[in-house]
Amino acid sequence: MSSTLPNSVLRGHPRSSFSEEQLVRYVPDADERLKVSRGHCYEHFERTDEHVVHDGRELRVFSWTHRTYVAE
């Protein structure tokens, strides 16, 4: 995770893909789609209009949409 303060939280993903610490993160452009590399695949998330408060900070919610695999 970046040393920048978190501004987003990931939701709706396959649970085995992320640890709890990886769900709350800094997203440079929190108004765009998000693609997270997971080794052999990418998890794709879309911004929602929802916000949640986590540790006193308001975070943008990104919802999981799909997974794509890296071609060999």
Describe this structure in words.
With 72 residues, the chain is mainly beta. It has one helix at 20-23; strands at 8-11, 24-25, 34-37, 41-54, 57-69. A hairpin with a 3-residue loop joins strand 3 (34-37) and strand 4. A 5-stranded mixed sheet has the order 2-1-5-4-3. The mean pLDDT is 88. The chain has 1 helix and 5 strands.
Residues in helices, as a percent range: under 10%
Q: Nearest-angstrom radius of gyration?
A: 12 Å
- Give the overall shape, derived from the CA principal axes: globular
Instruction: Tell me about the largest β-sheet.
Output: 5 strands, mixed
Mean pLDDT: 88
Write the H/E string, N to C: EHEEEE
Tally of strands: 5
Distance between the termini: 27 Å
Low-confidence stretches: none
